[in-house]
Amino acid sequence: MEITEPRIQAYCENHSSPEPPALSKLSRDTHAKVLNPRMLSGHLQGRFLSAIAFMLKPKRILEIGTYTGYSTLCLAEGLSDGGHIVSIERNDELQTVHEAAFGDRKYDIRMLYGDAKQLLMGLEGTFDLVFIDADKSEYEEYLNLIEDLLKPGSWIVVDNVLWDGHVLEPEQDMSEETRSIHRFNEKIRANTKYEVVMLPIRDGLSLIRRL
Ligand SMILES: C[S@@+](CC[C@H](N)C(=O)[O-])C[C@H]1O[C@@H](n2cnc3c(N)ncnc32)[C@H](O)[C@@H]1O
After folding, report:
1. What would the pLDDT profile of 64-77 be if each residue is shown by its tens digit?
2. Which of 2, 65, 105, 106 could be disulfide-bonded to 133 (CB atoms 3.0-4.6 Å)?
3. Residues forming beta bridges with residue 125, ordered by sequence position
4. What pTM, to 2 d.p., does this model score?
5. At the top level of CATH, which class does the domain 6-210 belong to?
């Protein structure tokens, strides 16, 4: 199911600033050479992530699910001086793609390769902004694991919270993945430690503030 009417989506893209050239190239290369290019955030969501990062000016960003690094670069645009982004990716075959995309060292991007659930347990300090975009059936676990990495005023952005509209299906017909996302959406809405707003951008983005 299209979440946003395609012409509205196109109008929004056409009336947003264009992607920086490095991001158009990364998007083209991903579509040409990497499996599942649909996973990439893309123009509109990318500009939105960049805007969020510029508004927050975070010192430390955590990203769960790098893929080819498109969202990593969008988020990094808004880092404050001396800030860095830690990005976690299970698929270490993407390492050469990351080296090509981040190799100019324009931003301080620290890649961690391995399973997010393991790696999150080893992280220390707090993050100003966390972007959750890895395994959809693990969102609740990621939330539990990042709890100690947040402080009041930290923000979490969660991708794919509408899962192609499948979250509207009757619960008994939902796939395991849809059920997990729906359960995550329900739990975060009921959790008094957080304030959440869900937006129908691309496949659904929730913006969550740690109170
Ligand atoms: C939707 S893609 C991320 C897209 C990227 N954030 C962007 O917007 O361009 C999800 C990525 O998460 C990775 N992933 C899935 N489960 C993971 C896990 N348990 N630990 C680490 N990475 C994982 C996948 O390999 C995939 O590259």
Report:
1. 999 999 999 999 99
2. 65
3. none
4. 0.98
5. alpha beta
